[in-house]
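**User:**
Everyone, produce one record:

**Assistant:**
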Amino acid sequence: CPERPADAIAAVASFADDVRAAGRNGPWHSYDIPRTVTKRTKIAPWCPPIWPASGGKDAAGCVADAIEHFATILEDTSRTDADRAEALRYLIHFVGDIHQPLHTIDDGDQGGNCDPVHFGVDPAATNLHSLWDSRLLSVEMRRGKFAATAAFAAALDTRFASLFETLSKRRVNDPEAWAWESDGVARRMAYGKLKPVIAPEAVGGTVACAGRRKSVGTLHIVIGDAYASQAQPLIYKQLARAGCRLSRL
């Protein structure tokens, strides 16, 4: 990587994942709204005040308050350049995370990480989270003949010009609202269009990932063209929202 601070935005987009294990900052990447919650409520139950890892315990907080925390550091000109640069690296990643629907919902499955599915004719199982992280997008990019991400980004600029104009008029950055918006996509599409359906876990219930994989695996869920074609426009829109909001932030 180039010497700091000459690294490009794209090069540091994975920074928060690169330091995730060492910094024990896993909770900062998601907003685990239980799938059984059907009405928007206060943030507190699933997002305690942000706090770094200490005493062998993971950091506290969620992606919504992590965005607010690091935005405050970035805009504080009394902080060192190194502090503000690190805050920017976190922001680039977390604004992306909060717009990935599976980062804003939890069904005892770590946001779909414990839900095995098969994608098309690929015999190897993946999981629902990975599908929404990259695989649905990469397939659609190839189908759209976008060999480079720059061309894909340019296409999004054209497609969502009116959305950018609307979002740019909003003066307030509201990560909590962004999380609930993404959660709605997860409910309606990511889980809602699965066939067969994965029944929500009971309120307050806990399940080990291995047990969840086994039970969901018996459903033999195959993600085909019908699901992918419905997911694609929502993924594009989430990317457009994320890019616009990151630039404003």
In short: The longest strand covers residues 116-119. The radius of gyration is 18 Å.
